[in-house]
Write a structure and sequence with these properties.
two-stranded antiparallel sheet, 27 helices, 64% helix, 1% strand, globular
């Protein structure tokens, strides 16, 4: 029974494998004895891509199946428990059914034990087969990939970075979840990934960059299926964007523009273009809600500019390292200020809620004095007081980001613990879900769903807490000169599928830390990255920046319900419809914790389910159905306008 689940995937994997091997043999024959045989190299490349995708799907399927089998065995053992035996004996004594009734229950119990053992064996067999096939699949993919011509410029493959290089570049610093708070992290480590706040002059260049990207049709011209040389198309579009930027500079500041244009070409202005694009990247990291259409376009054109073939034609580079607080201070020998004991006071958020005005004013003055003290103490000939203040403001911006993006997750975790008990079910507020009912694709009892929702949000919290570091690593993966991408139809149009080893390693580190801290993990631990679900690191970043957009409106509505109830008319409506303020809050939260984590949002377990990324997919699916909920009028009364935060172009 268990083996039939994978038969469809394995059949397609075998067909792709046979196709690739046949094309490889044909290529070998044409190279040796049959020069008149014409081999379509693009067909070989496509077959190899399908082989890699099939191998990845088989790996995911086997991993998820093994996890499902083990979960099934645990459920069966829960049924076959001492509590069941006690209950059956009590029932037998109460109804005087005698040994015949007990014998029938013993038969059922033996059947449960046999089913649990069968599930355990299936899981162990699947895991063993997965381990054996991993090396064979890697060898097959490697063997076919080596057949490619080294000088084929149109073939784009993903070359994973060396593990030692990745280990050297990544320092996760997640030994303890409690130590991951911004207030307890080492400022030196944090500053390595915190972008430097833009100056007034840099904001002028930012406006020019946004204008140039807004009118550009780069991805429409490049990411298409065409027989023309892609390298030439990329080079032409890059030169057009540089020309637009130069023209905008002339229109804004004629003297500066004249210096860029007179007797100089694009190559001579390499530093200017690098600075402008770096400003755009830095601004986006600090403000994820900005440049929502322009940023993807910019990253993709910078990604293409890293290609050796494009650089040969373009003759200059557009990418430079991101300017962070740590790199800025280190270049001026001022990194010592990050270890100052007053850093937390000088950069921390002022939590003013519920405090009197005079207390808030006192906290503000104390923070300002701490900033002035650090700036005066560490200023030097190479590091001015204004430079130090800019660095402090940048770290403070990071704290503001964490407050907006991480704190809603903390509040939702608080609501889960406040209104629900994993070991007791209140009438009408069970979190249990059943596959096939109300769109759910998972089956969990109340306790298991409580843990599933809690663990998912704890993982989101850690991702949000380390988002600047993950973003830094994501750009390193996207703009790598060694890792190439494949333009592939993922089912949602043509997308750039590219491996992301740095982000993948960081995410596995965060997940492992969460699992180690929690002790038990409900659901799958598969992380989709570099496949048709999450094609590249840009899609990964975009996916997890949505967490605050999902949770913030829910938190605001829950907080506003008691305020709404102060109005007599609205209170009467809440009492009549929900039975009181607390019941209204619990109704919304019960629906969210149940059906925002039900594995829905796709038609198969590859794209949704209980995998790490599928949990966020389910949450977005819940958001898309908010208008159909019985409590939607409460959302509108609380000022809800949407989960997207208004006009995405703003």
């Amino acid at each position: 029974m268990y083996c039939n689940i994978l038969s469809f995937v394995l059949f397609h994997f075998a067909s792709h494998l046979d196709m690739s091997r046949a094309l490889t043999r044909a290529l070998d024959d044409s190279d040796s004895d049959a020069p008149d045989v014409s081999i379509d190299r693009q067909a070989l490349v496509d077959a190899e891509a399908k082989l890699v995708d099939a191998a990845r799907r088989v790996t995911v399927a086997r991993t998820q199946f093994a996890e499902y089998a083990r979960a099934r065995a645990e459920e069966l053992r829960d049924i076959d428990s001492d509590a069941l035996e006690t209950a059956v004996r009590a029932a037998a004594e109460k109804f005087s059914a005698g040994d015949d009734m007990w014998t029938s229950f013993e038969d059922v119990r033996e059947a449960l034990r046999a089913a649990a053992e069968d599930a355990e064996r299936a899981a162990a067999a699947c895991e063993d087969e997965l381990a054996r096939d991993a090396d064979a699949t890697a060898a097959t993919v490697s063997g076919t990939t080596k057949k490619r011509s080294a000088d084929d410029a149109d073939v784009r493959g993903a070359e994973p970075a060396d593990d030692e290089m990745i280990d050297a570049e990544i320092s996760i610093g997640l030994d303890d979840l409690d130590a991951s708070d911004a207030s307890s992290q080492g400022f030196v480590e944090r500053a390595k990934y915190v972008p430097l706040r833009l100056t007034s002059d840099e904001r002028k260049w930012l406006r020019l960059l946004e204008a140039a990207l807004h009118v550009s049709e780069y991805t429409d011209k490049v990411d298409i299926v065409s027989y023309k040389s892609k390298t030439q198309r990329i080079t032409k579009q890059l030169r057009e964007i540089c020309a637009i930027l130069t023209g905008l500079v002339v229109a804004t500041d004629y003297k500066t523009g004249q210096q860029l244009c007179v007797d100089r070409d694009f190559k001579d202005n390499e530093e200017f273009f690098q600075d402008v694009f770096e400003i755009g990247r830095r601004h986006k990291v600090m403000n994820p809600e900005k440049m929502r259409s322009e940023y993807g376009k910019m990253v993709y054109l910078l990604q293409d500019s890293q290609s050796p073939q494009v650089q040969e034609l373009l003759e200059f580079r557009l990418v430079k390292p991101l300017k962070t607080v740590y790199s800025f201070l280190k270049a001026r020998n001022g990194e010592g200020l990050l270890a100052d004991a007053n850093m937390e006071l000088a950069t921390g958020e002022i939590m003013h809620e519920g405090l009197p005005r005079h207390e808030v004013q006192r906290m503000i003055k104390k923070k300002e004095r701490a900033r002035d003290y650090i700036a005066s103490k560490y200023q030097s000939a190479t590091l001015s007081k204004e430079d130090i203040l800019q660095c402090l403001y940048s770290i403070a911006d990071n704290n503001a980001y964490l407050r907006f993006n991480r704190d809603p997750v903390d509040k939702m975790l608080g609501y889960l613990a406040q209104f629900f008990n994993p070991n007791a079910i209140e009438g009408g507020f069970s979190l249990a879900i059943t596959m096939g009912l109300h769109g759910a694709r998972l089956s969990h009892n109340h306790q298991k769903q409580y843990m599933y929702a809690s663990q998912s949000m704890m993982l989101w919290r850690e991702v949000s807490n380390d988002m600047f570091k993950l973003w830094y690593l994501a750009e390193s993966d996207l703009l790598s000169e060694t890792s190439r991408y494949d333009l592939t139809n993922t089912g949602q149009g043509l997308n750039r599928v590219q491996s992301a080893p740095r982000v993948g390693k960081a995410m596995h580190g965060i997940l492992a830390t969460c699992q180690r801290k929690l002790g038990h993990w409900v659901g799958s631990s598969v992380i989709h990255l570099g496949d048709h679900n999450v094609p590249n690191a840009l899609m990964f970043i975009d996916k997890y920046t949505q967490v605050s957009r999902i949770l913030n409106p829910v938190v605001l509505v829950i907080e506003q319900i008691p305020v709404l109830a102060k109005d007599p008319g609205l209170k009467a409506y809440i009492d009549a419809q929900f039975g009181g303020v607390e019941n209204a809050q619990k109704t919304i939260l019960k629906d969210f914790f149940s059906y925002a984590f039900d594995g829905s949002g796709a038609e198969n377990f590859f794209d949704a389910g209980s995998c790490i990324d599928g949990r966020l997919t389910s949450a977005w699916n819940w958001c898309s159905k908010i208008e159909k909920k019985s409590y939607y009028p409460i959302f509108k009364l609380a000022g809800f306008s949407g989960f997207d935060g208004g006009d995405f172009r703003s």
